[in-house]
Amino acid sequence: MAEVDFDEFDSVDYHAPRSARVQRIVHLAGAVSSVAMVIGLAVWGYNVAVRDVRGVPVIRAMEGPMRVTPDDPGGQIADNQGLLVNDIAATGTSGPIPSEIMLAPNAAELDLGDGPGLEGDAPPPEVMAAVAEASGVVGTVVMPERLPEPSGQPVREDREETGASTVEGDPVQELFVPPPAIDPTLIPQELVREPDIPPAPPGAVTHSPRPQIRPGALARATAVPVPASSTQEVSVTALKSGESLVQLGAFDSPEQARSEWTRLSGKFGSLLAGKKLVVQQTVSGGRTFFRLRAQGFEGEPDARRFCSALLAENAACIPVIVR
C-alpha cells in the first residue's frame, strides 16, 4: 500500500471568506435596529397611555389686541350722527347730556342769484287783460321784471332791529311784488282747456261703487255664560272601575273644591252641562287633599276632547280613568 507523504506540499494560511464578515455585520445592524424599534414602540405606547393623565397642553395666548381700529379709517362721515335724538330712537331713552352742545346747521336758503332760471314764460295777453279787469287797472298790466343782479356785498342780518334781511340798507321785502288775485270767473272759457280724455270702452268700470253705510245702532253680541242649573255630586263609592273622569284640580278642603266647581260652572256652563261633581279624598306624602273631578263622559276620547276645550281657555284639566 502506498504511503502519502504530506510533507512534500507547502503549507497555506487559512482565512475566513469576506462574505461571512459582511453577513455578520448586517446581522448585528439588524439586531440593533430591532432593539431600537422595540424601545421606541415602548416609549410611544407609554406616552399614549399617560397623555390623558398629563392634561391638555396649554397654548400661550398672543400679546396685544386681536383687532385694532385704525387711526384714520377713511371714508365719508354721514350727516346727523351722534345726536341725542338718535339715541332715543335706538334705545328708547335719552343719553347723558354732553359737556359741549352744538346746534344743527341752518337749512340751505336760496340766494338772490338763484332768481334767473326760475321764471317761466310770460302769460298770454288775454290773461293779462283779465287780470287788469279784475284789479280795476286801466290799461295793460305789466309783469314785474326779474330781480336785479346781486351786488358783491354780502347780505347782513338786521333781524333784531327790523326783523328782515337787508341788501345795501333796503329791505328785501320791498324788492318782491306780490301777484294780484285773479278771479277765475273773469278768465274766458276758451282759454280754459279741458284735458282730452278718451271715452271708456264698453263694459269698463267708470266709477267705484260706494260701500253701504253701516247701521248706527250696530253692536257686537256677547255670549253670556249660562251657569249650570243644579250641582249633582256623586260619591266616590258609586264610581265604576274603568270609568272615564276628568280632574279639574286638587284642594286642601272639600269646600274649596266645591267653590271651584261653582266658579267653573259659571264660566264654562255650556261645557259642564250634564256633568256631575266628584270630590275624592286622597292622602299623599302625609298630606290630605281633595281632588275635584267631573263625571259624565261616554269614554276616554270624550274626556280628552273636554280637556282640550278647557285647556284652550287656560283652565286645568287632566283625563283620568277609575282604577
CATH homologous superfamily identity of one domain:
Sporulation related repeat
**SSE topology string:** HHHHEEEEEHEEHE
Q: Name the poorly predicted regions.
A: 154-175
Instruction: Classify the fold: give the CATH topology of one domain.
Output: Alpha-Beta Plaits
Assembly level: single chain
Structural class: alpha+beta
Main sheet specs: 5 strands, mixed
**Mean pLDDT figure:** 73
Which percent range describes the beta-strand content? 5-15%
Please report the distance between the alpha carbons of the first and last residues.
127 Å
What is the CATH level 1 assignment of one domain? Alpha Beta
Shape: flat
Gyration radius, in Å: 55 Å
Helix content: 25-40%
Q: Please count the helical segments.
A: 6
Pfam family, one: SPOR
InterPro entries: SPOR-like_dom, SPOR-like_sf
Protein name: SPOR domain-containing protein
GO molecular function: peptidoglycan binding
